[in-house]
Amino acid sequence: MPLRSQPLAAVSATVEVQPAPEAGAPASVPTHVAIIMDGNGRWAAARRLPRIAGHREGARALRRTIEAAIRSGVAWLTIYAFSSENWRRPAAEVLDLTGLLRHYLRHEVAELRQNGVRLRFIGDRTRFDPDIQRDLVAAERETASNTRLNLTVALSYGARAEILAAARRVAEATRDGRLDPATLDEATFEDFLSTVGIPDPDLILRTSGEQRLSNFLLWQAAYAELVFLDVLWPDFGEEHFAQALADYARRERRFGARPA
Ligand code: IPE
Ligand code: IPE
Ligand code: MG
């Protein structure tokens, strides 16, 4: 049985307290896989191509990954597509990446909708052009009743900014008398995060050989299993996804409890 499994219908805007997983229980298919899709630039450089070619090929890898997740029975997939720090890249690359996002939103959402994918976006969407912001809202609305795969896309996302925004909103709620600081616990704090209603990731996978989180889901990653693969993101496919899942299935999750 997947750890922390939760029927989709039970997921609402308010975080439900998750049942404590049994320490030492064998892991199987993760309920929630989060992916740091890294290595597009190096893939392109190895072929003497412009970086945008790597990003385009990365979008194809994403399509394969969504299909692999559905086939594997993974219910939640979260992907790191653009970090709050990625705005620091040269303007031309930022323009290429936002252009690719615009294209993806216009041409791929219909197929995702037909395939039962529910889209959510986390991150600071106010930094994108107004037409992209409108398409993000439309994509969430048009896929809101889908339940086959919950796909969350982190865009202009940074975990520290997310936690800071939550802290600010907690402070405001306290100031306005809507929240008693004495009752603030982890579950209540999670109501203020952008991932409200989304279970914590069981497995975080990063491609390209880098072994860091780069400001991704820092709160939610507390007990995630980490898998780092040497493959560059544009080369990622079903076999790598299966390899990560197999690696995960061999892990013993303890959540701080005594080993069995
Ligand atoms: C990941 O690939 C895509 C984004 C961060 C937007 P990179 O562009 O980081 O590729 P490398 O790490 O330079 O190879
Ligand atoms: C992390 O990759 C962000 C995304 C994959 C979107 P980066 O390439 O931006 O991370 P660093 O700079 O190597 O840590
Ligand atoms: Mg990178």
Topology, pairings included?
Elements: E1 32-36, H1 40-46, H2 51-72, E2 76-83, H3 91-107, H4 109-114, E3 117-122, H5 130-142, E4 149-157, H6 159-175, H7 186-190, E5 203-206, E6 225-228, H8 238-249
Parallel strand pairs: 1-2, 1-5, 2-4, 3-4, 5-6
The structure holds 3-methylbut-3-enyl trihydrogen diphosphate (2 copies) and magnesium ion.
Quick take:
The chain has helices spanning 40-46, 51-72, 91-107, 109-114, 130-142, 159-175, 186-190, 238-249, and strands spanning 32-36, 76-83, 117-122, 149-157, 203-206, 225-228. The chain has 260 residues and is an alpha/beta fold.
What does this structure look like?
With 260 residues, the protein is α/β, with parallel strands linked by helices. The protein has helices at residues 40-46, 51-72, 91-107, 109-114, 130-142, 159-175, 186-190, 238-249, and strands at residues 32-36, 76-83, 117-122, 149-157, 203-206, 225-228. The protein has a 6-stranded parallel β-sheet, sandwiched between helices. Mean pLDDT is 92; it is low at 1-21. The structure holds 3-methylbut-3-enyl trihydrogen diphosphate (2 copies) and magnesium ion. Residues 37-42, 82, 86, 97, 208, 233 line the site of one 3-methylbut-3-enyl trihydrogen diphosphate.
